[in-house]
Structure formats: C-alpha cells, structure tokens
Specification:
Helix content is 44%, strand content 13%. The protein has helices at residues 17-24, 82-98, 110-117, 141-151, 153-157, 164-177, 203-220, 222-227, 233-241, 246-254, 260-292, 325-333, and strands at residues 5-10, 30-34, 54-57, 60-63, 66-69, 102-106, 193-200, 312-318. It is built from twelve helices and eight strands.
Length: 334
Amino acid sequence: MDKKQILIITGPTGVGKTDLVLKLGASVPCEIINIDIGQFYKPFAIGTAKPELSSLSEGIKIAGGIPHHLFDILDTPRSLTVHEYRNIVLQTINKVWANDKLPVLVGGSGFYIQSLLFPLLDLDDRGNEDLASEQFFEEKTQDLWQMLYDIDPERAQAIDKQDNYRIKRALEIWQKTGKKPSDYLPQFEPPCDFTFLVVDRDRDELYKRINLRVIEMIDQGWIDEVKKIKNSEWESFLKIKKLIGYDDILNYLDSENKDRDALIENIQQKTRKYAKRQLTFFRMLNSKLLANSCYPSIDCAKHSAEGVCIKTKIIWTNLTLLTDLNTLFASLKN
C-alpha cells in the first residue's frame, strides 16, 4: 500500500463484527487479523464464535474469500502475552501491506487492542497467568488490592478492586523494578495511521442476539466441544482463563442434575454482562484516543518534536440504525 494504515473493527460480543467484515471485504481489498482471545485456540470454535475457516496456506485461513490471520495459532493451553501478540500482529500487518491489502483487525478483546496502541512495559515473556509472582497466587484479590494500595495508591485507585489480573500485574511491576506501577503507565505509540471503528446495536436488540446465539451454540454442539477437553490440561486452563461459558459447561458436565435450560440462561446472562463491560472499556479507550490522537482534518503539531504525526479516525456506528453499509464503507476509505 502507498500509505500504511490499519483498520480496527471492534464492539461487544454478538454485535455482528464477523458478518460486517466479510461484507467489507467484498468492497475493500483487505486481509483479516484476529483480535479475539478465544479464537487463538485451536480446540475452541463453537463457544468462541470462530468463523468457518478453511486453510489457505501455513498460518493463514480463509473465509468468504478473504485471508484470515492469527486464528488457531495456539494448540497448547497457554496464554499469549500482550507483547507476544503485539509482535506477531506487527509482523502480520507488514505481510498484509506487502500484499498491497488493508490490514483489518477484528475482535472484541479490548486489552489486546489497547496494547497495540498503548504498548505495555515488557517485563518478560511469561504467560499472562504467570505475570505475578507465585507468592501472590493464593492471596485473595481484595488483599492484593490493599497491598497495591499500600505501595501505590494512585495506581490502586485506578484499578477495580476485583480486577485480579491488573492488580497482579501492577504488583509484578513493583516487585521487578522497585518502582511504583503508576510510573510505568503506557504511552500512545500506535504503529501507523489507523481507523478505530466501534460497532454497537440498540441494547434490546444486542441482548436478543446474544441470547439467541448462546442457544444456537449449544444446539451446534458446544457441550460436546467441551467434553473433548474434559480431564485434559485444557480443563484447568479454562477454569483460570474464564472464557465465557466454558467453565459453566465444565461444571454442568460434573453435575449430577444436568439442567440444560439453567446452563443456557446462566451463559446468556454472563455474556450480556460481558458485552456491557466491553462497551464500558471501549468508551474508556475512545476517551484515551481522543486525548492523544491527531486527526486527518486538523493541522496538528502534537508530535512535531518527533517529526511524526499519527492520524486517527474514530467512528462509532449503531448497526440497528444503519440502513446503508456502503455509506459506512465509504467513510472508512476516505
């Protein structure tokens, strides 16, 4: 491509990102790069809403005639650190540019999206589940938060008291560097110009789609998908990873009185709550982008000292109200 840029398409689970991007591919020469954690894992397809993919070449899948990258990249139960992910994504973006295509990053894992734009301190190459020292493993989350507050009140107050991962990561920074985690807040360093597209729907419609999708996943064999990894190393990994629905199905399989309807209702409720948390995160990320970005229509001197000005386009679209996809796609090209 003459001008190197990327498109990031995100939004809450169940909103219709996959269908949207396949339609986009019919009008924009592009390749898809996955930013959905669950779809990294080879054994998990139904419960992660993985698109129907066929192999194109080594490491590349295809769906709807469009090459897809970073699906099924992990066949062992380990986490992909945000640093590993960012490095792999940057390599993949360069390959897509070399094909004279637009890299389109699609998915709802906000933490990975944020790490691409605001890189985190690279402490080591260990998996996410091992980020904190083993001494923190058995501690209650509220006790860890208090420990962090005693060390760095500023960082502690910025983290939810139940956010076990970020609390442990902050403690790890303190443990390994001897400095306050608030001194290591990530800076805005996107790899190139980018468009950030968040797609949403009216709340009632989104929740109806989520409820229906859970039923469809169960009917498609989600329970059997989980049965296949029962009593394997994947089982303990899933209970730590907390991919929506998988631990519920594991508990369902262990229960004597199997209530399928209760299982479905529980997963539906958890998925709706997850979608709500995603939207909260995207609004927070949107505010960070507005505070740090330059815009194509503005003569910006924000990055003049470095001689670099990253242009950012931010678009929020309600698919419930959208009547013409071509208008949306045209706005992405401009």
